[in-house]
Amino acid sequence: MKAAYITETGVPSVIKYGDLPQPQPGAGEVLVKVGAVAVNPIDTYLRAGAIAMPLSFPFIIGCDLAGTVTAVGTGVTRFKVGDRVWGSNQSLFGRRGTFAELAAVHEQWLYPTPTKESEAEAAAGALVGITAHLGLFQFAKLQPGEIVFVNGGAGGVGSSVIQMAKGAGATVITTAGSAEKQELCRRFGADLVLDYRSPGMDDEIRKFVADRGGINVWFESLREPTLDRTVSLMAPRGRILAMAGRQVRPEFPWGPFYVKDLSLHGFAMFNASPDEQRECANGINAMFDRGAWQPQIGKTFPLSEAAAAHQLQQDNTLDKKGTLHGKIVLVP
Questions:
Q1: Are 6 and 59 in contact (CB under 8 A)?
Q2: Residue 102, strand partner residues
Q3: What distance in Å separates the CA atoms of residue 298 and residue 120, rounded to the nearest whole number?
Q4: Domains delineated in the chain
Q5: Coil, helix or strand for 329?
Q6: Which of 59, 136, 139, 187 is the most interior residue, by most CB within 10 Å?
């Protein structure tokens, strides 16, 4: 089978595209004919060797996938041949990656694809959708009528947070760096969309939330947050979610934080159990079926151009070039 893989960690050009042996489904696994995969920042960190993780070379890259079950291993109960499925959490902790024509995946990491959802959409919404759902509902316990803030509303996580929060009856504030991206955020349902470069942005936020006491849930997607600013904009008993910025050590405004009864929740979706992630997936699928969830695809590549796709993701994650909105999807 054709696959995108690495034989060493390094820059995007270390990614190779070629033939590897076809995987066979083991106990509890299904064999998926891959229809689409997506690129995530975590994929670029693993490829670069920036995160310590057991890698067995040749190592197939990629966390997300969507496709069709072509065979099942012993003990599989949730899926059968012909089922359309989507999933995430592969290429981690010794699991095989997804950037290939075929992938053997344990059934606990897979979910049924809604009838009207394309494989590209399902793959694009996998990791970012589960991340947004975990943060909003498991950790922040979002309630109808609350105010949610998320940076970068045109991105994968940001667009997911907007749509899911609106679907739960929240008011959403977000930022974007261009008129095109700002209009996208409004289409997703954001109530207030601001240019993150505007010197008056925080004043606009304060005016918008003045009669509500502040922001209830701050979904921090920036790698270098400013907690003094965040805490000053929060409502009493607000919840701040941290899910990016592994190396940062920001100053912490201890006094303003505790006198507001605030809470800070750090989370990584990879720590969630299969059952917790399946609960998210069920919620995501239900949202798609009722028209409240539309995964965003920013750029599509053939699988053979996985190195170029990784370069584009890295340019926009680490180098902040701002040339991407939505997810990068690849098709075998």
A1: yes
A2: 33
A3: 11
A4: 2-125+295-331 (3.90.180.10), 128-269 (3.40.50.720)
A5: strand
A6: 136
At a CB cut-off of 8 Å and minimum separation 6, what does 170 contact?
142, 143, 144, 145, 146, 147, 148, 216, 217
User: pTM here?
Assistant: 0.95
Instruction: Output phi, psi for 277, to 5 deg.
Output: -70, -35
Cα 29 to Cα 76: distance, rounded to the nearest angstrom = 7
Residues 6+ apart with CB under 8 A from 307: 4, 12, 13, 14, 15, 17
**Residue whose tokens read 């947004």:** 132
Number of Cβ atoms within 10 Å of the Cβ of 232: 15
Polymer length in residues for the chain: 332
Here the tokens at position 192 are 């207030």
Count the Cβ atoms, other than its own, within 10 Å of residue 222.
16
Residue 46: CB atoms within 10 A of its CB come to 23
In the structure encoding, which two tokens stand for residue 42, read together? 């975590």
Angle (nearest 5°) at CA 178 between 173 and 181: 60
pLDDT tens, per residue, the chain with 332 residues: 999 999 999 999 999 999 999 999 999 999 999 999 999 999 999 999 998 888 999 999 999 999 999 999 999 999 999 999 999 999 999 999 999 999 999 999 999 999 999 999 999 999 999 999 999 999 999 999 999 999 999 999 999 999 999 999 999 999 998 999 999 999 999 999 999 999 999 999 999 999 999 999 999 988 788 899 999 999 999 999 999 877 788 889 999 999 999 999 999 999 999 999 999 999 999 999 999 999 999 999 999 999 999 999 999 987 778 788 889 999 99
What would the two tokens of residue 87 be?
A: 């999933």
Sign of the Cα pseudo-torsion (241, 158, 284, 192, in order): positive
